[in-house]
Amino acid sequence: MKKRKIWRLGLIGYPLDHSYSPLLHQTALVDAGLTGTYTLYSLPDPQQIAPLLEKLRTGELDGLNVTIPYKKEVTRYLDGLTTSAHAIGAVNTIFWKGGMLIGDNTDAPGFGQDLEHSFRGYSHSGNHALVLGAGGAACSVVYALLIQGWAVTLAARRVSQAMLLSESFNYPNLHTTHWEAVSNPSFLKKFSLLVNTTPVGMAPLIDQNPLAADITLPAGMLVYDLIYNPQKTRLLQLAEKNNAKAINGLGMLLQQAVLSFEIWTGKKVSVEKMRQVLEKKLESEEER
Fold this sequence. Notes:
By secondary structure, the chain is α/β, with parallel strands linked by helices. It has two domains: 6-105 and 254-286, Rossmann fold (3-Layer(aba) Sandwich), CATH 3.40.50; 109-248, NAD(P)-binding Rossmann-like Domain (Rossmann fold). It has helices spanning 21-32, 49-58, 83-88, 107-118, 136-147, 159-169, 185-188, 234-241, 250-265, 271-286, and strands at 6-13, 35-42, 63-66, 80-81, 93-97, 100-104, 128-132, 151-156, 174-178, 193-196, 222-225, 245-248. It has a six-stranded mixed beta sheet, sandwiched between helices. The chain has a six-stranded parallel beta sheet with strand order 9-8-7-10-11-12, with helices on both faces. Helix 1 packs antiparallel against helix 10, helix 4 (107-118) crosses helix 5 (136-147) and helix 4 packs across helix 9 (250-265). The longest helix has 16 residues, at 250-265. The radius of gyration is 19 Å and the shape is globular.
């Protein structure tokens, strides 16, 4: 009788105290009918990365996710990058294929898929998006929007950071603006989609908002906040108050996890089952 494979998966980053990845991937393993573990590898020292990746080369591990602060750092230890990982310059999924350690980025397609799913059937005018922030999360979001055909304007408190991101992609329909512009309602009217990639409003600082609390958003605007804890940020509350369509980042988190799991195992799993488990977990935490 053939011995049942035990999948050994995990996450590299630091710190990892509040990661939901084990919950998501254990749910995925059960849904796929597989046996395995998903371990958090909290690495305070970057020099700990190489020995752990060696376990992928030897078959001791089957796949790894990567989160902050190592999404860029890890690329120098890999043998190759997928097209999206190379374009974004960051990796969140590592796998072994053809004798090579490959880095992929499922954040971008995860966001793109959830954006299409969340706003399917929702009428909006134009395809001009305003992205708040120019950090690592913004890189994935901007890439996903550009390949979907959106014109994108970046607004960041550090204009130099936004310009560097824009130059790295070198797309004619990618522009930057100064942060103060987002306080102007007439400026916001140019956009049919607003995406917040900053951590402003994330727990425990849930009373913060990247926009002024009294600003008027265009009715019918699509507002996507990558934050999912809390599930309804001050920005999303403002969006609903202005009759805009509001979506949090829970779907992106789920979609990128599902894509990573499929890369490792070849198995497609139910996003909805993972959503139910995570929403229950988040609701219990918000009630505390």
